[in-house]
What we know:
single chain, mainly beta, 7-stranded antiparallel sheet, 12 strands, globular
Amino acid sequence: MTFDCNAFRKALGTFPTGIVVVTAGKGADAKGITVNSFTSVSLEPPLVAWCLGKSSSRYALFTEPESFTISVLAAAQQAVSDRLAGGAGCSVTGLALTETENGAPGIAGALAIFECTRAALHEAGDHVILVGRVTAFTAQSEGAALTYFRSHYGVAE
């Protein structure tokens, strides 16, 4: 039996996910990437994780820094997601940003912002799992989230 990678990808797409932007770097050097593989890992210590393809042109930009910031996008932030996705550019210059203590900016208007120090990198097939220890966070008490389901954006309220 052959394994159909395209069918597997479609099957994975039946699981709705939220959309986050991960940023690394500081000031004019800050870069961002759209991610839908974000998850909580642990409350004590506070850990989160996300995955990055090893073949990504942005691999070194996000695996080398000791800190990064994760912004959970609001429903109205699809343009931010599109800009920092896939083959699009990774500069956050010109986006509405918010300063953080770790230096990697958050996306202004995001539902939540998690400032992280890198806790671990785990090799996992054609991806790497980046685990971050949350050192600070902010969250809005209301607002709809940008979601992704079967290759289309949606909204979760």
